[in-house]
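Hi U.,

Before I forget, here's the chain from the pilot set. I'm dumping it here mostly so it's searchable later in email.
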Amino acid sequence: MGCIHSIRCKPKSFRESIVVLDLNTSIDPNPTSIDEASGVVLRYRTPHFRATARVLVPPVAAKETWTIGWIQACNHMEFFNTYGDKGMSSWELPDLRDSKIQAISDSDGVNYPWYGNTTETCTVVGPTKKDSKFTVGMNDNFYPSVTWGVPVSDSNVPQLTSIRRDQSFTTWLVAINQATSETLVLQTIRWRMRLHVQVDPEKPLGQRATLREPVAQEPPHILGRNEPIPPNAMIKPNANDAQVLMWRPKNGDPIVVIPPKY
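Structure:
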């Protein structure tokens, strides 16, 4: 329907006029790589999750500042390293594990609530006379170290037998008004990274670990309807500062090996 009388046509609000011109998201097709160069730790590097959006911001009439970019939260984390019949070490997010919160910020820990502030965000300072077009992008992957030996012992004797990881994230493309904190969710992506590495500690270094699954990750999912951002995804602590390394022996009480930074 066109406009017969201009008076009947309400101008679209600025908020309705921010346009996502295109959105690409993927997880690299390469499998997780395993590095056995160290006699102390096994390292692995997962494929990258990537998200890129081209955004159009209409002219900003007022003296307003809008930042558009990526915010990410972890919704679920299982990260278990099994040491034969001795027990397992586990990276845990206690509040998430105990369902006290539904998500935790995965910010870089500096630029809350943003995932980062290099390619991840763009700021438009009003007043502007014409459209602003720009691209914001982010990527994420895991590159941890897991000790060959039981983490609570002084011995480096290899006893690691298995690594399992299953983590889920929600990633939002968001516009935030810096003065009023008004937050507009433009796109919502969900993605997951799973991993199972089998380890034979009897074998020589360099031949111990085998990637079992999955060789290719499931592709990220762009939601048809945006999800709101849970409060904990916007504030401290972030996942890196909140995580705890536990040792959970087959017999006996769990031990905190590395306490949270936060």
